[in-house]
Amino acid sequence: MSDRTRKLVTIRNKTDHDLLVLVQRELDRGLTLVDVATIRTSPLFAQAEKAYKTAAAIFPRISGISLSDRFRIESGLKELRSRLDRVPVFAKIERYTASVA
Hints:
This protein is mainly alpha-helical. About 70% of the residues lie in helices and about 0% in strands.
């Protein structure tokens, strides 16, 4: 392997590692945001959805990924998607009658 090829391999490995870190951070961010989103129209839900889309778009571009990392990221994507799908469309509003003492 030539010196130039080794440098390219090193750069690609670092890029893959950085992308993996980025995807994991987006998943963590999305999971945190979706836990505080109360309805799908909230800005927090939109940010969580964006984090999911970003992670899902970047993940397939990582070429040098171990099976354990691949499984961890795929599980995280499925978990985030599941939590996003469980956020209610509308908030449940209950009426209370006023009572005078």
